[in-house]
Amino acid sequence: MEDWAGEMGERWLANLKAFESTIAPVGEALLAHADYRPGERVLDIGFGGGASSMAIARAVAPGGEVLGIDISRDLVAATTRRAATEGVANARFVCADAAHVIVPDAPYDRLCSRFGSMFFVDPVGAFTNLRKALKTGGRIDLAVWAPPQDNPWLSAVVALARRHIELPASIPGAPGPFAFDDPDYLNRILTEAGFHSVKWARSAGQVPVGGQGNTPAGALTFARNALSTGRVLLEYPESVQQAVTSELLELYTRHYRPGEGVMMGYCAWLVSAVA
Question: How far apart are CA 56 and CA 44, in angstroms?
């Protein structure tokens, strides 16, 4: 499981601009789908670098507010500084585990999570707990990755690396990027946690790997430094690392579009439900 309270949170922060630029198309689709309105109070779970929190805070002003909850102290501190720098006064951030957090000024109107909920160790317990912080009739909106085969920007890297190194086998439903790729599985979790009226929408297109306008070499640096596959690769001899690096560079060169970046396919589910 990814250690978001420690190493993974630090890695996200170290590669914040690249991460946020890469997944920006999905974040924008999620916010458009959620359609936040002035005056709403919103919980943002696993907010990462705070891009979604800032956008929601602007959408619910005046009169609304955002409370971001993340398990990484580093991300909480960095996003608090970011909000102050950007002049976003109606957003605040706390370090807590979503499965156990008690929100003192609950209930809130809405809940959002852009790729944060897939890492819950006990998803039923976490969603049950979060439901307590929502008003009856409050809505949750989640962005989660669809199956790996629909996300070549990630799965192609893994498939390439597997030709050279050992990577852990994927376990359906285990915490990780594709924990909720099966709609039936997430439907059961949300229903068991007390939500109803679960709806699904599909967001698909292309993401710029490592950021808008990035070069193949830049995308390679992003993959080596930011993705979990790159971390595992460091455990192997230099010759193996060089082989994977060479093939990754070839992959990214094939998908490079001058002026746009290394553009590869993605697919995410936008999921809403009612408390």
Answer: 9
